[in-house]
Design goal:
Elements lengths: L10 E6 L4 H17 L7 E6 L5 H15 L7 H8 L2 E5 L8 H7 L5 E6 L6 H10 L8 E4 L7 H12 L7 E3 L7 H12 L12 E9 L8 H4 L4 H18 L8 H14 L8 E6 L8 H4 L10 E6 L11 E6 L6 E8 L17 E7 L3 E9 L8 E9 H5 L1 H4 L4 H11 L8 H21 L4 E3 L7 H8 L11
Parallel strand pairs: 1-2, 1-4, 2-3, 4-5, 5-6, 7-10, 8-15
Antiparallel strand pairs: 7-11, 8-9, 9-10, 11-12, 12-13, 13-14
Helix pairs in contact: 1-2, 1-14, 6-15, 9-10, 9-15, 10-15
Bound molecules: NADP nicotinamide-adenine-dinucleotide phosphate (NAP).
Length: 484
């Protein structure tokens, strides 16, 4: 198979916060990989910007170091790095002051796409958006890219959206949720809407329940005080898990374009029912050996913030009536693993004597590691001795199925940044989606705050608090094992 490289039009990308962690860890190494793949046209430039004083040469060295630290095999391509950093420039700009903005405006070129990546804290979004216009850095075709968090509740999300919209149109605003850039997540739509097999079964007549798990092995150490202001609900469920839920549950859009897809996702969020507090489990990881507990990492011995959450929710529409969606995410769990599992109903009656097990087809979509999809099917156990049935996975690991081409698949950030230059907003969140997600999240958080719920302790390296297992046991179901 031949890898298809589709170059984008020439662009100037300004990265505000171009010296920060996100820029060095994800954005710049990702751009280098796209440069090597030939997606970045000759005339394109990347302009790093922050308050600290650097000239172009110093900034190029910062980016070389970042690729060396965070890049993959491509960091050995010294000639490629030399060519890439030639495209880099640096302008010192203070988001809260007027220094540097005229110089930045002077660097902009007519007829070239202008994109501005806000890789800074959200408190600076308004200042940057306002100055981009006041100093004529942006034009009416410019795009801005903003990172989570999009607020910490409905009110702040509305304010943030209003601030951005007072300077840019919605079709210029690209809100990144990197989960949407994952190859498997897009494949989920291809599987659903590109095959005749699944869509007829995709409803409450055939699906028993759906599980979405995003498990991490790391704790919050290092950024504990920052994390403690949000917690798993705000940091993961409101955005990433919600987006996955939408893609699994939405109706088929009339076509695969940005507004058609986002309209369908919005309908799902609006149909989400409030979560009963009996269907909600929050946890905090305990200390283990010389490893600190969550509260020690968060530097607050009385913190009530959750590092783990599991919940059961329902979507009130005809397709999903009665089908529970179980969501869980947490830190310091037994493996780093993210998956969506669609668990189909059992047969109800077995014609095979002695076969008492409940066989179920399960479609499991693995987001990380080892992106791929497998379908659990029931077959006859090979060999003599009658009809004994076993469940086996039909595995479609992309790396195996697609061979070397799978290695060229851009990672989530690379793909999404290129979509900005292509002007394709399909995999970005619209403002109303973000607000609807907060409108569902806020009362859940307000509920546990009013009740004064204390998160349950869980041992690091497990699947979270025991109550999380109970959440499904009570429904005569069980979580899938968390395994790498
Ligand atoms: N790191 C991640 O993996 C990650 C993941 C998802 C989302 N995010 C979000 O992405 C944003 C950036 O995160 P980060 O981790 O990269 O933060 P960071 O490491 O603290 O970097 C912040 C950047 O902003 C610049 N900056 C700060 N104040 C400024 C000002 N007044 N004017 C101009 N530049 C200023 C800093 O450089 P100077 O100090 O030199 O100005 C630095 O380059 C945050 O909103 C974060 O929540 C980060």
């Amino acid at each position: 198979m031949v890898s298809r490289v589709i170059p984008v039009d020439p662009f100037d990308l300004v990265i505000f916060g171009g010296t920060g962690d996100l820029a060095r860890r994800k954005i710049l190494p990702g751009l280098f990989r796209r440069f090597r793949a030939g997606t970045m046209p000759e005339e394109s430039r990347i302009i790093g910007s922050a308050r600290s004083e650097h000239d172009d040469a110093e900034y190029r060295q910062i980016v070389r170091d970042a690729i060396g630290e965070f890049g993959g095999d491509e960091k050995e391509d010294k000639a490629g790095i030399d060519a890439f950093v030639e495209r880099l420039h640096y302008v010192r700009v203070d988001a809260k002051g007027d220094d540097g903005w005229k110089e930045l405006a002077g660097m902009m070129r007519d007829g070239i796409i202008r994109a501005f990546y806000f890789s800074v804290g959200p408190s600076l979004f308004g200042d940057i958006a306002e100055r981009l216009n006041r100093f004529d850095v942006a034009d009416d075709k410019s795009r801005i890219v903003v990172e989570k968090p999009f607020g910490r509740d409905l009110q702040s999300a509305k304010e943030l959206n209003a601030t951005l919209r007072s300077h840019f149109r919605e079709d210029q605003i690209y809100r990144i949720d990197h989960y949407l850039g994952k190859e498997t997540v897009q494949n989920l739509m291809a599987i659903r809407f590109g095959n005749v097999l699944f869509e007829p079964l995709w409803n409450n007549h055939y699906i028993d329940h759906i599980q979405i798990t995003v498990a991490e092995t790391v704790g919050v150490g290092g950024r504990g005080a920052y994390y403690d202001k949000s917690g798993a609900m705000r940091d993961m469920v409101q955005n990433h898990l919600m987006q996955l839920l939408c893609l699994i549950a939405m109706e088929a859009p009339s076509q695969f374009d940005a507004d058609a897809v986002r309209d369908e996702k919005l309908k799902v969020i609006r149909a989400l029912q409030p979560v009963d507090y009996h269907h909600l489990v929050r946890g905090q990881y305990d200390a283990e050996g010389d490893q600190p507990s969550y509260r020690e990492d968060a530097e607050d011995p009385r913190s009530f913030t959750e590092s783990f959450i599991a919940l059961r929710c329902h979507i009130a529409n005809w397709r999903w009536a009665g089908v529970p969606f179980y969501l869980r995410t947490g830190k310091k769990l037994k493996a780093r693993s993210s998956e969506i599992a669609v668990v189909f109903q059992d047969l109800g009656h077995s014609i095979f004597e002695g076969d008492e097990k409940r066989h179920r087809n399960i479609l499991a979509i693995r987001l990380q590691p080892n992106e791929g999809i497998d379908l659990q099917v029931t077959i006859k156990e090979p060999g003599p001795g009658g009809m004994r049935l076993i469940d086996v996975p039909l595995d479609m690991t992309f790396a195996d199925a697609l061979g070397p081409e799978a290695e060229d698949v851009p990672d989530a950030y690379e793909r999404l940044i290129m979509d900005v230059f292509r002007g394709n907003q399909t995999l970005f969140m619209r403002g109303d989606e973000v607000e609807a997600a907060w409108a569902w999240t806020d009362p859940i958080i307000a509920g546990w705050e009013a009740r004064g719920d204390v998160p349950k302790l869980y041992e690091p390296g497990t699947a979270g608090p025991d109550d999380s297992a109970m959440l499904l046991h009570r429904d005569n179901r069980r979580w899938r094992d968390i395994k790498a």
